[in-house]
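Appendix B. One record, verbatim.
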Amino acid sequence: MVGVRPVLRVLVASDSVLLGDGLALLLAAAADEVEVVGRAAQPGDLLAMVDEVAPDALILCFRATAATALSSVSVARTLRQQHPEIGIVVVADQGNGFALELLRAGASRIAYLIDDRLSGIDAVLSALLDVRAGQVVLDPSVVDALVHRRDSVAIDDLTPREMDVLEQLANGLSNRSIAEALHLSVKAIEKYVTSIFRKLGLTDQARIDRRVSAALVYVRARSHPVA
């Protein structure tokens, strides 16, 4: 029939069974034009499932810890390279550096939403339809963070010891664990971390996880070193 849009095939990925299954059920009940074709429990499961179920869009729903964000960045990059036609809707608890990394591969067909700012399932559904149309949807707090954050971070300004601390931070270690690994006091690590945040231009904003952002800066620098 003319004017009727095809069903939007959606793959939902979340490391929380409750969140993932709940989101899938809400989407299925909210709209006839959406079909949830699969559920992935871990980011690493996405690549194989995308090839298997061939979705039009996928939802990444996660809590923005350093470990989760870093693994999700790797998977998202690969998906963007292999399947640029697939829309990606991220639903996260914070607008950290993951949003910037996701947008580096191109802004089309990307949505980044903050879960506690969503008005309801209709906002997720609207984002899905927008990314299918090739649009970008960003929570205002994410836009503010991207505008005010320096793109060319001064990682070269870090001292060798600060680089050691940043490497451990990127591995997801707490300050106490970093102190044990580097044989330093927790107080010394706290001072190094504060200095790292300052030099990388990571300001203390409520919706920005600075540890995640710093970890992503480190990973990006290692992947694309400046000549």
